[in-house]
């Protein structure tokens, strides 16, 4: 979907004081990066992607495959030129550049000399150069910043015919919508399945094929805000593995759906079938291997769609019932290397969080992204912080300062509300203490 418009960063310090049994305790929660997605205006919710399934005829399918072959050739030529320039610059005093301007000139010369390339539309070929330039610039930026190898994007690589999935990008001058059909540059006409209306005229479209052979058209449009009735309630959300989302409202907790665990046995069977039918390297795949790979891809796609559907339905419910959301800005990437990696991946925390933020932006709700530091160590009642981090096996939080006892994740969800500066009166009458 489109970028999160209007995100602002601010640094704040929360001073919480409490006086209990003649003990004065002052706790300062410092340097909290609190990012807020403000309520969108009525003009629009920013750019967004609307994706539709395509009905592709045999003629259009052949044309799309041929167009992709040309674009793939342009990409591979860009990769070869980049590698050639890198080799020439190693011992040269005057460096040679390989930017989009130079590649555009090479594309113009290639189209002038090659009739096969000239038969295709120039728009998707130019967009391939733009995509390559962005990918190469990101890789060079990571190298210049001396990031660790595991964090670098990596230089663009050759796209092989049997591995790369077709993707064609068209700007506004490369496509049109007429009588419910999508007309692409080069005389390609396809029929989208209009499951919903476009909110505005699209500025670009991406036509691609997924791993199970289905074609889609993804339009970039300006989405309109669809405001919901005000409820006057706020909610705090804490992400986890046992439960995907724990909130300050028991009715809005999201249990772990375990879609991947349910389909694991079937997926493992198809993967073993692929392993038995795999051919040696540099030899074409057999029909049996392609059939097993298609079955495995279909199961994986179903799991992904189930996770996406669960996350969107839960996000819709949360956004409909609350005006303000305090969401933990949790990044589950580090869990991939832990013993909880498989369960965390099955929870799809990242996809659920993205769906919640996008749903809040669509309906004009205010979303606060709260930094997750020390959220499991702070007390939501008095603000006191434990001296040591709690182990994951300890699921109950007990405050030594005020004596409050609550489930660990519930306490963290209430801390989100306090840190976001929201009135947490709706969360079991929890409110920040005054000094």
General description of the model:
With 435 residues, the chain is of the alpha+beta class. Helices cover 37% and strands 23% of the residues. It is built from 10 helices and 16 strands. A 7-stranded mixed β-sheet has the order 1-2-14-13-10-11-12, sandwiched between helices. Strands 4-8-9-3-7-6-5 form a 7-stranded antiparallel β-sheet. The chain starts with 7 loop residues before the first strand and ends in a 16-residue tail after the last helix. Residues 1-33, 36-43 and 425-435 have low confidence and may be disordered.
Please specify the SSE layout and strand pairing.
Layout: E1 8-20, E2 23-37, E3 46-55, H1 58-89, H2 100-113, H3 115-118, H4 122-144, E4 167-171, E5 175-178, E6 181-184, E7 188-192, E8 204-209, E9 215-223, E10 234-239, E11 243-247, E12 254-255, H5 259-262, H6 264-277, H7 287-321, E13 324-328, H8 341-347, H9 349-362, E14 366-370, E15 396-398, E16 405-407, H10 408-419
Parallel strand pairs: 10-13, 13-14
Antiparallel strand pairs: 1-2, 2-14, 3-7, 3-9, 4-8, 5-6, 6-7, 8-9, 10-11, 11-12, 15-16
Helix pairs in contact: 1-4, 2-4, 6-7, 7-9
